[in-house]
Amino acid sequence: MASLQFIRHHTIRSIPRRLFSTQKKPLTVLGIETSCDDTSAAIVTSDRRILAEVVRGQLDVHEPMGGIVPTLASKHHSRNLPSVICETLERANLSVDALDAIAVTRGPGLPPCLPVGLNAAKTLAAVHRKPLIGVHHMEAHALTARLTSTTAYPEFPFMTLLISGGHTLLMTANQLGHYETLATTLDDAVGEAIDKTARQLNLAWVKGRRGGPGAALERAALRGDPDRFPLPVPMLQRNKSVWGFSFSGLKSKVAQLVQQVDLSDEQTVCDMAAAFQMTCVRHLEQKIGLALEREVVERKKPLTALVVSGGVASNALFRSRLERLAGLYGLPLICPPAELCTDNGVMIAWTGLERLQAGLVDDYSITTLPKWPLDTLIRNDD
């Protein structure tokens, strides 16, 4: 009965919003991630240490289906999450009572999957009387480099490119919770286009944490000639000055070519993968170049870095080409380690820490937000 009364009458916003960063002892936060097909939890400290991380993937479940099936993903999250959380606590040698807060992905994400993590986090936080922090999945990707960077620490403001299966988003990160959208996709996300092209080329998914169709295409492209199949760079003629990305036409062009070639020839598949990958990079370069020209040269905005994150940011070609582009404007390219570019609990825990130290905590009554524009986050915080 006492616990119920606490939940009813002691919502987290009644806890003083003090600046936790004034404490001498490092803060410790558990992060829970179930927005898509990876079940993950991690414990991170405010002095930038990852105490533990556990990830349970589902590639073997979804590959036979040709893509992620949301209801199947949710079912496996429900199976996996209890053991994932327990193992994370055991690896860190901590109890829930030793945590300072619990952070969880609130959105955006797959509607059947988000509630699995959120409900678990709400229950843990309420029972153990811990602050609850609902994290925006894309803000977490943007801020991960502030945890992992060992060279240039990206202070605000910085430009951030978030590229994944669900997003292609270029923004200026002005401060915690305050993001200005510069360009987004007009149709498909780059990661979605990559995954679908990999399936059109009949590439077997790469196994493991950084696996999947996108990793399979990158691996094939390493052995290919990008010049064998000339592909038009999207929006380079009529829409060259438009701030936006488009990958549906490029994806359709590859689909047409697939009907004209012999996919049983391994070199042909590799050459087509290389051509598609290079064209995606050139498209990103052209549009990001427009943004850098305006923000750095014309507006003279004191950007500190170009931060690239999301699952596609683990691609080595994307990293090398975007590093060269950023360097032309005097900016370092900062990316999380490849294993932390894909969805993970570490980024959720770290973002929870940043928000906790700013006094940004949530009620136990929060619900999921499957569609949640990042540039509305500051209004939700106010």
What does this structure look like?
Helices cover 41% and strands 15% of the residues. With 382 residues, it is of the alpha/beta class. A five-stranded mixed β-sheet has the order 3-2-1-4-5, sandwiched between helices. The two termini are 33 Å apart.
Please report the total strand number as a whole number. 10
Secondary structure class reads: alpha/beta
Strand fraction equals 15-25%
Which sheet architecture does the biggest sheet show?
5 strands, mixed
Query: Whole-number average pLDDT?
Result: 90
What are the segments in which pLDDT stays under 50 over at least 5 consecutive residues?
1-21
Order of helices and strands: HEEEHHEHEHEEEHHHHEHEHH
What is the share of helical residues?
Answer: 40-55%
Gap between N and C termini: 33 Å
Shape: globular
Number of helices: 12
Major sheet: order of its strands?
3-2-1-4-5
Using only C-alpha atoms, the radius of gyration works out to 21 Å
Secondary structure elements and their pairing?
Blueprint: H1 2-9, E1 28-33, E2 39-45, E3 50-56, H2 59-62, H3 70-92, E4 101-107, H4 114-128, E5 132-136, H5 137-148, E6 158-163, E7 168-175, E8 178-184, H6 190-200, H7 213-221, H8 248-258, H9 266-298, E9 306-309, H10 316-328, E10 333-334, H11 345-357, H12 377-381
Offer a quick outline of the entry.
With 382 residues, the protein is an alpha/beta fold. It is built from 12 helices and 10 strands.
Name the descriptors:
single chain, 382 residues, 5-stranded mixed sheet, 10 strands, 41% helix
